[in-house]
Amino acid sequence: MKPRPRPLPAPFPSATVYVTTSRPRADWCPDCKAWTRFAGDVLLLAEDGVSVVGTYNGCEICDEPAEGGAPRA
User: What pLDDT, on the 0 to 100 scale, is given for residue 29?
Assistant: First the structure.
């Protein structure tokens, strides 16, 4: 006896989503020991609202290449 095949689930409805970033804000850089770091939120804009899905950050000093070279470590 063969098992009865399961019905396929209904497909998800299509939706348009957008990913954008918030305005950067000043933050403390633990390497520089100064307020030279910036941070912001990664936002997901969907039909049912806005969600924060992550953050981004960088430092004006630490992430800046030294005279055309590689970023300082």
Answer: 92
